[in-house]
């Protein structure tokens, strides 16, 4: 299609419905014709990036033609943590893990290891007496320990899924490093506070405060999920994941070349067959005599 043909068309963006005189601002990303043929590059990008997991990111929803997407293999999935898309789901997940761990830690440590988890703390005589003789503080101690382990389970799941499903790991690490360091400091306040209060023989206060502190760890973990999702959006926006015009699609050029080659071969075969049909048997005999 030459420029004169393009200029004669009614150039209108099918998304914003505005007329456009500058053809360089428009693209024909699919096989739609008429007023649906052209779209502003910026309008199409805004439309597609509403959700990169939606079908409209990868294909035209009118003609169902797949877009030719640049750097398609580098686009990150924004939904690998969609199961934790709100804080209440994450809170329920953490509570289930924590209370399950609480039960097993209590059984193993009290009846098998003789309070070995209690004995790892300095000044443990006072803590040992509290945990052994007071059911309330005993429950708090093992619940605190369970929530501490549960937070590291969450961190492990996060790192593992990023390792398995994230393609631009270096860019994500750069964007998330501050937040990852923050949550590891937050997790380990458990130990520092217990050590500090233990030196003043204030384990009851420490156990109660840490329980309240750990109960709200799900909020910080949910902030990690939100920061991860925003980082993925940043990474995808930095990629040149625009849509190529159907007229500039190299696949179309290859296909057309193959069709032309096939047609040329068919024409040559037809011409050869026609020429052979025109040859008389006597001509073939005369040619053989000359060669001999």
In short:
The protein is mainly alpha-helical and 292 residues long. It has helices at 3-8, 41-48, 55-58, 87-111, 116-119, 124-133, 135-165, 169-199, 203-215, 217-238, 250-278, 281-291, and strands at 26-27, 39-40, 68-69, 243-244. Residues 1-8, 251-260 and 284-292 have low confidence and may be disordered.
What does the main sheet amount to?
2 strands, antiparallel
The termini sit apart by: 58 Å
Which structural class do the helices and strands define? mainly alpha
**Fraction of residues in helices?**
55-70%
Mean pLDDT score? 80
Strand arrangement within the widest β-sheet reads 1-2
Total domain units: 2
Shape field: rod-shaped
Strand and helix order = HEEHHEHHHHHHHEHH
Tell me the fraction of residues in β-strands, as a range: under 5%
How many helix segments? 12
Task: Find the count of extended strands (DSSP E, 2+ residues).
Answer: 4
Poorly predicted tracts of residues? 1-8, 251-260, 284-292
The radius of gyration is 35 Å
Question: What does the model show?
Answer:
This protein is mainly α and 292 residues long. The chain folds into two domains: 10-66, 2-Layer Sandwich (Herpes Virus-1), CATH 3.30.40.10; 82-238. Helices cover 66% and strands 3% of the residues. It contains twelve helices and four strands. The chain has helices at residues 3-8, 41-48, 55-58, 87-111, 116-119, 124-133, 135-165, 169-199, 203-215, 217-238, 250-278, 281-291; strands spanning 26-27, 39-40, 68-69, 243-244. The chain has a two-stranded antiparallel sheet. Strands 3-4 form a two-stranded antiparallel sheet. Helix 8 packs antiparallel against helix 10 (217-238). The longest helix has 31 residues, at 135-165. The protein is rod-shaped and about 85 Å long. 18% of the residues are buried. The model is unreliable at 1-8, 251-260 and 284-292 (pLDDT under 50).
